């Protein structure tokens, strides 16, 4: 396949995962699926379900599914989530049984995963309008952001959100207190139509800067997905906040640093090369790991996730497209299946993942769509709540020449 054909195939096969692996009665989407054969997995991720809502918008626009059919699937999901699932002040469990929405694995009620579900729903609301928009608004207004900011009122002066809540222990001690994938959560909170959280929450989390080999200054480090997830919905190009930060530049540099690390360490790991790169949270030979080349995370063991460079196609189109093509050309016999690329592989360990993971397919699908035409950004950004969130966070459009510094002022 040519690169353009492959782009289309990666997108369409990713959407097939969301269509095939969403339960017809609940609309809940599996967390993962076997990429080569039917499976008996029953665990749904609420974030994966949010990506399914977004994926169906892309599928209608690309002619892969009829508008009415996609709208009905969306309504099934929203009705079930609103009427039949447990929630804690509107917030949802991270993992549930896709057949009935019941909690599994003693997981937490998750702020970030609920935010990702809401992001997909808002995109669907902007596209389908009508009842989809009404149900999404009902879901949004049910979310009590203040509960997750103040731990139910016990910490009234706290400005940073907790990661979540468990019935066995209450509010989790970990907070979204430094740069991470949480930008989408804070924008949704600041833009909420029913609560007016203090604008100071945007400035409350830390923004540590790091470099790789005295190059590519960017915020934090860690798995590549933390630099991608929010950007697939929110267009942060040519924007800075009141503190002077340019989060787009940070993600571009983080991607380039991730790739350069793989190039520099190809003598240690046979998987790595100039065109085979992408270290992020993924499956690995020894189980799921939060792989990171440097900074916070699990040390890399040479495992590469194909969706990592694809998810950065908006930041580094040339490098990401070459990586996608190289992985397909060299390893498609082992990692190319019904839903596209398997989640990860490791040449040194002769390990080739059999599964795909929903959130990673969702990030790749949205990144490609934005790379091709910016459609996700345009539709998502027009929602009044997002505009309000951007305004209250101080993320203003600027006109500066490139290259742009990470921080100004």
Descriptive report:
The chain is α+β, with helices and mostly antiparallel strands and 409 residues long. The chain has a single domain, classed as Glycosyltransferase (Alpha/alpha barrel), CATH 1.50.10. Helix content is 43%, strand content 12%. It contains 14 helices and 18 strands. It has helices at 3-20, 46-62, 67-84, 111-128, 130-142, 145-150, 183-190, 201-204, 247-264, 307-311, 317-335, 358-373, 375-381, 384-393, and strands at 32-34, 43-45, 95-97, 109-110, 164-166, 170-171, 209-212, 215-219, 239-240, 281-282, 289-292, 298-299, 336-337, 340-341, 345-346, 351-352, 355-357, 396-397. The strands form eight sheets. A three-stranded antiparallel sheet has the order 4-5-6. Strand 10 (281-282) and strand 11 form a beta hairpin. Helix 1 (3-20) crosses helix 12 (358-373), helix 3 (67-84) packs parallel to helix 5 (130-142) and helix 4 packs antiparallel against helix 5. It is globular and about 55 Å long. The model has no long low-confidence stretch (mean pLDDT 97).
Low-confidence stretches: none
Strand order of the largest sheet: 4-5-6
Amino-to-carboxy terminus distance = 47 Å
Total number of beta strands:
18
* Gross geometry: globular
CATH topology description = Glycosyltransferase
Given the helix and strand composition, which structural class is it?
alpha+beta
User: Per CATH, which architecture?
Assistant: Alpha/alpha barrel
**Can you tell me the CATH class?**
Mainly Alpha
Helical proportion, percent range = 40-55%
What kind of oligomer do you see?
single chain
Q: For this structure, what is the CATH homologous superfamily?
A: Glycoside hydrolase 144 (GH144)
Give the biggest beta sheet.
3 strands, antiparallel
Mean pLDDT: 97
Task: Provide a count of the helices.
Answer: 14
C-alpha-based Rg, rounded:
20 Å
Number of domains: 1
């Amino acid at each position: 396949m040519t690169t353009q054909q492959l782009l289309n195939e990666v997108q369409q096969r990713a959407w097939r995962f969301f269509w095939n692996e969403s339960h017809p009665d609940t609309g809940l989407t599996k967390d993962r699926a076997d990429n080569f054969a039917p499976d008996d997995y029953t665990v749904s991720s609420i974030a994966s379900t949010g990506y399914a809502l977004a994926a169906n918008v892309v599928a209608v626009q690309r002619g892969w599914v009829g508008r009415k059919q996609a709208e009905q699937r969306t309504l099934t999901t929203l009705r079930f989530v609103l009427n039949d699932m447990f929630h804690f002040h509107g917030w949802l469990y991270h993992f549930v049984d896709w057949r009935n929405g019941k909690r599994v694995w003693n997981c937490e009620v998750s702020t970030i995963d609920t935010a990702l579900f809401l992001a997909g729903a808002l995109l669907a609301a902007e596209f389908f309008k009508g009842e989809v928009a009404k149900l999404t608004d009902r879901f949004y207004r049910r979310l009590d952001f203040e509960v997750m900011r103040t731990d139910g009122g016990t910490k009234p002066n706290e400005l940073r959100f907790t990661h979540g809540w468990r019935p066995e222990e209450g509010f989790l001690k970990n907070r979204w207190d430094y740069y991470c994938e949480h930008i989408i959560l804070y924008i949704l909170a600041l833009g909420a139509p029913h609560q007016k959280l203090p604008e100071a929450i945007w400035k409350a989390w830390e923004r540590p800067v790091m470099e790789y080999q005295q190059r590519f200054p960017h915020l934090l480090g860690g798995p590549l997905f933390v630099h991608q997830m929010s950007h697939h919905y929110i267009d942060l190009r040519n924007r800075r906040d009141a503190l002077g930060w340019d989060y787009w530049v940070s993600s571009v540099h983080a991607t380039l640093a991730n790739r350069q690390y793989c190039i520099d360490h190809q003598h240690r790991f046979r998987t790595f090369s100039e065109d085979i790169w992408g270290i992020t949270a993924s499956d690995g030979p020894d189980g799921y790991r939060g792989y990171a080349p440097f900074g916070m995370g699990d040390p890399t063991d040479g495992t590469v996730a194909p969706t990592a460079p694809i998810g950065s196609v908006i930041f580094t189109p040339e490098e990401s497209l070459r990586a996608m093509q190289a992985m397909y050309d060299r390893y498609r016999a082992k990692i190319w299946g019904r839903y596209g690329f398997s989640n990860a592989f490791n040449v040194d360990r002769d390990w080739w993942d059999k599964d795909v993971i929903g959130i990673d397919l969702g990030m790749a699908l949205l990144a490609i769509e934005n790379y091709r035409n910016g459609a996700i950004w345009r539709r998502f950004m027009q929602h009044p709540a997002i505009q309000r969130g951007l305004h209250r966070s101080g993320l203003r459009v600027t006109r500066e020449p490139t290259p742009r510094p990470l921080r100004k002022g």
